[in-house]
Design goal:
Layout (H helix, E strand, L loop, with lengths): L1 E6 L12 H9 L5 E8 L9 H4 L8 E5 L19 H14 L6 H14 L7 E6 L3 H13 L3 E5 L14 H17 L2 E4 L2 H10 L9 E3 L6 H6 L11 E6 L9 H13 L1 H4 L2 E6 L4 H9 L6 E3 L5 H10 L2 E5 L13 H9 L3 E4 L4 H6 L5 E4 L4 H17 L7 H4 L4 H15 L5
């Protein structure tokens, strides 16, 4: 077995979407001849924890090296769930942090992790390093290991760096500093994988002098077929209603405002149908969004289930008549966004209702007949889509996704492609 050092700040028992991609790679890499060791943070105050995710690694002999949080996060040592109460406050604190920490507020952890790696572990054992971001401190740490120890480096972009939709650049100096750090990281990398072809195009254009073309690959987000195979049968929902399910959290311009607005219109125009609609939100829903639903008069058809462990989230996906999500087009870089939930929805083969701008995930979903896509803020199109899906439910004709076509996004398949890249760049250890 070849040995791989995985640098991943977000890793179970931390929850939410940022851990899924890395966890699934770590889960399946041993099947392709790679034994991962994970370098991550010691759990500290965070929005959600999910102990069931670590159970997926049982029996795979995965070493997990945990480094204490540093900087401002050292003040929040010890596992503690922090409620996600107010989106406005979260956004403001995030913007303030971006003024002072470059590339992010995990830089102290990165320095601490490097010291611990070099003083406590034999790095000669590793055939390669896999560094996933955000936070992009992970990419800087990977680059330092490449320079100091000659370990081949594979960088993973779960999101864009410069075009991250929810990053605020306070000045031209901030932007230039970020770009210089990204260029340094890419120059150190032996290979790079990104979640969307749009991110790939941006990197090739911005850093043409680095000649990244042969080193830069697209590995999309995915779904784990075992999640659906192993899930216990879900309890059925009221068959007289049409159940729309959303999993995850809302933030920035990924909010339920358009949906609530359209449902309020339907309440006035189609009262009988409105009484058959049920919208389930599985995950944290901030108080301001609950208040929005009440103010618009649609609170009675909204059902909030709070944060649940991932296996329970899968059960909710299986219970749905229709799965829905949205990406706004008001932020910079929305073309780069590729949420993991879209691929889990695909894996379920359930009908999908998506409010999307022109981007990679829209292009992917347009290839599947069971996905209904409308433009953000096109209220009439969204209303017609809900009416159409409700009619199909009544007729028993809701579409089912093509399993063979969807299988290209299976996490195990994607991990096999990752292993192929690692094989190409790996070194012989001494």
């Amino acid at each position: 077995m070849k040995q791989l050092l995985v640098i991943a700040y977000y890793f179970p028992p931390m929850g939410l979407s940022g851990v899924q991609r890395t966890l699934k790679f770590v889960k399946y890499l041993p099947d392709f001849g790679w034994q991962p060791t994970v370098l991550t943070v010691q759990p500290h105050a965070y929005f959600a924890f999910d102990d069931s995710l670590l159970q997926e690694l049982d029996g795979k002999n995965i070493n997990i090296w945990r480094v204490e949080p540093a900087g401002i996060f050292s003040l929040f040592k010890g596992r503690k769930t922090v409620p996600l109460k107010n989106e406005g406050a979260r956004k403001t604190l995030n913007r303030i942090s971006q003024a002072f920490f470059i590339p992010d507020n995990k830089t102290g952890w990165g320095k601490q992790a490097l010291r611990q790696l070099e003083h406590q572990h034999d790095l000669r054992q590793f055939n390669a390093v896999f560094a996933t971001a955000p936070p992009f401190t992970s990419h800087l740490l990977g680059g330092q290991l490449r320079h100091r120890h000659g370990i081949p480096l594979l960088l993973d972009y779960r999101d864009a760096w410069m075009e991250f939709p929810y990053h605020h650049y306070w000045s031209d100096w901030h932007r230039r500093k970020h770009q210089a750090l990204e260029q340094r990281s890419l120059a150190a990398a032996d290979a790079v994988v990104v979640t969307s072809s749009h991110i790939r195009r941006l990197l090739l254009q911005r850093y043409a002098a680095l000649q990244l073309d042969s080193r830069l690959s697209v590995l999309t987000q995915g779904y784990d077929s075992e999640d659906f195979q192993q899930a216990s049968p879900p309890e059925p929902l009221d068959s007289s209603k049409v159940h729309f399910v959303y999993t995850g959290i809302f933030y920035e311009d990924r909010d339920p405002q358009q949906l609530f607005r359209v449902v309020a219109q339907m309440k006035a125009r189609h009262p009988e149908l409105y009484r058959r609609l049920a919208f389930h939100m599985v995950g944290y829903v901030q108080g301001e969004y609950r208040a929005m639903a009440e103010a618009m008069g649609v609170g009675e058809c909204c059902h909030y289930h709070g944060y649940v462990e991932h296996h329970e989230s899968i059960r909710w996906i299986q219970r749905a008549d229709v799965l829905w999500f949205n990406i706004g087009s008001r932020s910079q870089g929305f073309q780069t966004v590729s949420p993991g939930k879209a691929f889990e929805y695909l894996g379920s083969r359930k009908p999908i209702l998506a409010m999307l701008p022109e981007n990679d995930i829209r292009t992917i979903l347009e290839g599947f007949s069971h996905a209904v896509i409308v433009n953000p803020d096109d209220d009439d199109a969204l209303r017609q889509a809900i009416l159409h899906l409700a009619e199909l439910k009544q007729k028993g004709e809701l579409p089912v996704g093509d399993a063979a076509a969807i299988s290209q996004f299976d996490r195990r398949t994607l991990t096999g492609q990752l292993a192929g890249i690692l094989n190409r760049i790996s070194r012989t250890t001494t």
